Amino acid sequence: MPAITLRGVAKSYGGGDYAVKNLDLTVPDGAFMCLLGPSGCGKTTTLRMIAGLEQPTAGTIAVGDQVLDSVEGGLYVPPEKRGMGLVFQNYALWPHLSIRGNVEFGLRMRKVPAAERRSRAEAALRMVHVDAAMDRYPSQLSGGQQQRVALARMLAVNPSVLLLDEPLSNLDARLRLEMRAELKRIHEESGATIVFVTHDQLEALTMATDIAVMNDGELQQLAAPMDMYARPANRFVAEFVGSPPMAIVDVGPSPTGLAASLLRFTESRSTRVPPAAVGIRPEALRLGAPPGSAWHEEALVEAVLPAGSSWTVRLRVLDTELYALSYTPVQAVPGDVLTCWTEEMHLFDADGVRIPSEGSSADPSGDSSEGSSEDRVEAGA
């Protein structure tokens, strides 16, 4: 189907408070778009407006040339005529119907003939790998299987857009991992456009083709997952995307301790404007002998936290606590003094906007999916 476009979309529930503010967003045909952000940021409201369950207070929502919502034009297309399927956080399966009956339910409402209903339901259940349980009832299935049935119910009606509102939040860690892989496979096989709401940045990074980060009703950045990770548009995105989160140190005015050390280092590099803050991701902070061109300082080891495949080390660097993430065993104990160093830093101005490195064409305020893939302060530059 054509792209979904939102232009100047806003939603207010009265009293002057806006859940969504002047949102401009395009979901390309066939994309797997994740709306990512903390609770209350407006992502679910945005999804519900696309579905037609909420009407915008201002702006326009369109699919290609077909306008679905226009406040100025007084136009509103009801949900059942939008050709979209919505999967809620709650599975909402009928307990008295079999799995096949649940998947056929939407087709029955559309007056699809019985033979075609059966064929499409069985095909959808095969796609989500629950066809062996089609004659059982929801109470006989695990949570992960029930979630797959809810997806199959939507896939059976062949929607042009699949809207998912935090559908994995009720699953345990193992089932969430399994369902992430299933959703990626379903997207690749069906070619459907998917808009997925989540507050889990790991889900967004692992599944999406595009991520739209929202905060306080506003779009912060729209980019491909790894572009967003490598070049966050501002401090909010930098701290929200990544686990453990990026450490950000304010470096002015009159910095002392770690802030002064980082500022001296960045001043020796070419940047467009003096930074107001410097960010370091834990996985970019190394321990041991540094290269000659890297920033480095002595660090006191406060804790070593093994997690099987990785080790998180809490450090006291001058006057500031930092975390280092290592994927090789850390031979250190609390009280040891080591050298920590990094060749990768992220710089932000006084407004919290990313400062691109010299020669980068990335736009820190918008979609950074184009341009240089390297937009960090490189110590060796």
Task: Offer a few descriptive terms.
globular; ABC_transpr_MalK/UgpC-like; 9 helices; 381 residues; ATP binding; disordered C terminus; 30% strand; 6-stranded mixed β-sheet; 5-stranded antiparallel β-sheet; alpha+beta; 25% helix; transport; 2 domains; P-loop_NTPase; OB fold (Dihydrolipoamide Acetyltransferase, E2P); Rossmann fold; 20 strands
Task: Provide a concise account of the structure shown.
This protein has helices spanning 43-51, 99-109, 114-127, 143-156, 173-190, 201-207, 225-230, 235-240, 257-267, and strands at 4-12, 18-27, 32-36, 58-63, 66-70, 75-76, 84-87, 161-165, 193-198, 210-215, 218-223, 247-250, 277-280, 286-287, 295-306, 311-317, 320-326, 337-342, 344-348, 377-378.
